[in-house]
Design a protein that fits this description.
- The protein is α/β, with parallel strands linked by helices.
- Helix content is 36%, strand content 21%.
- It contains ten helices and ten strands.
- Strand 1, helix 1 and strand 2 form a beta-alpha-beta unit.
Length: 301
């Protein structure tokens, strides 16, 4: 077996729903709950905040909890009461600090975990915006993160029906870390699995080169899949020539994909460092939730 061949191993102990307590997070909470129940995992609802000056002065001078902290705690508990956990009582946790730091740190402490985010996706015409908190959390996360964008249908009655999953990959060895997640989710939901690699048209100098490159990449896609994947599901491999984010979105629409998984390295053209040409436009436009598994240093983002 090749050295970079991944064994079929995936565990999920905690689903962390990172909420900003806005209406944009509502649908994400439903997905977090449904995934928690499917995997019999803990469900933890977390909100990160910083104290406003007046609240900070109250807590320092009077050594009591400020109204800001009390109100946030109450809102968080109310959110936890309506979301069902796959393992006992739904937890709630109020974190003080920058979300882009404290949420990834929480995910590492509760590993193996899945962070779930919601976003409104509103922004200026020339810019795709996930929402400041969601965007910054994604930029700093190294583990799997599921983002529920503005075009994803509301999950009614908490029923999560995933029939077809798309795993889009650049075929880099580190991006293969997302493959076990794709296989495990396909198994958990008895879903069909598509595996897609898009070759940039600009990377091909001659038309005849594209056919040779595509044949080579079919083998590369197969090489990154976990050993034993074929015993769990039968992945359908696709290699196309075009623009990655356009072709991925086209595939999700044409094949009626219910869950998109992006296995990314931060330094590739699908990486997290450039919002307008990377993963962010895909998340904003996708009609299904998107799981990102990004690897590589976040220090230069």
């Amino acid at each position: 077996m090749p050295a970079n061949r991944k064994q079929l191993v995936f565990r999920l102990d905690t689903v962390i729903f990172a909420t900003d307590l806005s209406s944009a997070s509502h649908n994400a909470g439903l997905y977090a709950s449904a995934i928690s129940m499917r995997f019999s995992a803990n469900l933890l609802i977390a909100h990160a905040f910083t104290l406003i000056q007046a609240a900070l002065e109250v807590e320092i001078q009077k050594k009591i909890s400020s109204q800001q902290r009390l109100h946030l705690n109450q809102d968080l508990k109310l959110a936890a009461e309506v979301l069902v956990s796959g393992r006992g009582k739904t937890e709630s946790l109020l974190l003080e600090g920058d979300p882009c730091n404290v949420i990834p740190e929480l995910a590492q402490r509760r590993s193996p975990s899945l962070v779930v985010l919601g976003t409104h996706g509103k922004g200026s015409i020339d810019r795709f915006v996930l929402g400041s908190a969601a965007e910054r959390i994604l930029r700093h996360s190294t583990g799997p993160t599921l983002t529920v964008g503005p075009n994803v249908k509301i999950l009614h009655a908490g029923v999560l029906n995933i029939r077809r999953i798309l795993f889009a990959t650049d075929c880099s060895p580190r991006a293969a870390n997302a493959a076990p997640i794709a296989i495990a989710l396909a198994e958990a939901f008895s879903a069909d699995l598509d595996v897609l690699n898009v070759v940039r048209s600009s990377d091909v100098d001659h038309p005849e080169q594209s056919h040779l490159l595509q044949r080579t990449l079919y083998g590369a896609v197969d090489a990154i899949m976990p050993h034993g994947a074929g015993q769990v599901c039968r992945p359908h491999t696709f290699v196309t020539l075009g623009k990655p984010h356009n072709d991925i979105l086209k595939h999700t629409d044409e094949r009626e994909i219910d869950l998109l998984i992006l296995g990314l390295h931060r330094n590739t053209h699908l990486g997290m460092q450039i919002r307008t040409s990377g993963a962010f436009p895909i998340i904003i436009k996708a009609r299904c939730p998107v799981i990102t598994v990004a690897y590589g240093s976040a220090s230069n983002l």
